[in-house]
Every structure is written in C-alpha cells, then in structure tokens.
Design a protein that fits this description.
With 211 residues, the chain is an alpha/beta fold. It has a single domain, classed as Vaccinia Virus protein VP39 (Rossmann fold). 41% of the residues lie in helices and 22% in strands. Strands 3-2-1-4-5-7-6 form a 7-stranded mixed β-sheet, sandwiched between helices. Helix 6 packs across helix 8. The N and C termini lie far apart (37 Å). The relative contact order is 0.15.
Length: 211
Amino acid sequence: MVEDVYDWWSRHPRAMDLLYAVAFLGRESSIRRRAVDTLAPAPGEAVVEVGCGAGRSLRQLREGVGPGGRVVGLDASAGMVRAARERAREAGWDNVHAVRGDARGPPLPDGGFDAVYAAMSLSAVPDPAAAVRAAHGLLRPGGRLVVLDARPFRRWPLRALNAVVVPVSRATTNWVPEVDLPEAMRAVFGGCTTEAFNGGTVFVATARRNG
C-alpha cells in the first residue's frame, strides 16, 4: 500500500532527506524553488499541494498566497499528514491545512483552487494519469498545474543504470515510471510545457485549464 510505504518514510525523515539528495543529485533546494516559482502562487489564491508529504513546500506556497490566501496539503499517508499539520501548527499558519486523501479522488471541492502543485508525488500514485485528471477537476478555469517529478535516465550510458534504479525506486517509493506525466498532462489539459534538469531525470511540467 502506498500509505504504508510513506508512513514509514514519515517516521524516518533523515532517510527521506538522503533519498531526495540522491534523486536530485544535490540540487534539491534550487530545483524545488524553480518549481514553486513556476507555479507563482499569488496573494489571495487558493492552492492545493497533491502529495504534500511532511510539508516541505508549505512554507514557500504560504509565502506566495500570503495571509489572505489558502494552502491545502493532501496526502494518502496518515503519518505524512500528521507531520505536515505539525509543521503548520509550529509555524502558526492558520490558513495552511493538511488533509488525508487519495490523489485520484481527493476530498476537495471541484473547481475550488487557483493552482495545484505536486512535487515528487504523482509518479508514486498507483494510477498517475487518474491523479492528473483529478487535479484538472480541482482547478478553476484558467488555473494551473505544476508537477515536479522524476523519470528514468533517458540517455546512454546512464540509461544502463535504470536496471537498478527502477526496481529499487519501485520498492522504496511505489514509483510508476511507465506513465509519462507530461504526456498525461497534455492529454488532459490540451498542452504542457516541460523544463528538464539533471539530464532529463527531473522535470518541471506546467499545464493550464482552459478558461
């Protein structure tokens, strides 16, 4: 179960830090900042983060929407939701909330958000394409989806490493690399732009719901 795997990660935050350090090849902070800058949360907006985990991005999202906006973190793992709620409570953010739910059918209002953000999460959903469709439903007309995620090595000789990287990632994060997330976004939204990092293994994809 996805939630069981991430409940374990929620109890071992230092191990998750190491995992991300490897996944981002030491560029986690700068790439995450680039992804949030691409989302460009604005004062007063309502933003949902799908797969918020322990809340690594909540501060940046909250800084964007300001005290007049709203940030909702969604995660399937009870342990991750507890950690995200604790982070928000300690920071004193009364407009930041974390709820437990499935990204394929989130317990949130359709058309209730200006932006949806997903960082290293959609590729761990059992059906990533269904999660993209659900994200589309959460957005108001003109709203945008920004996805920060990873995919297997795309060029030789590094592609040879996929024989090890893919099965290990499946076992430790429920990774579903067969689904091309940018292509799934194009299919649902009618278009998608992608910026690649680290030889294409990490990307930031952006799509907008037609207004």
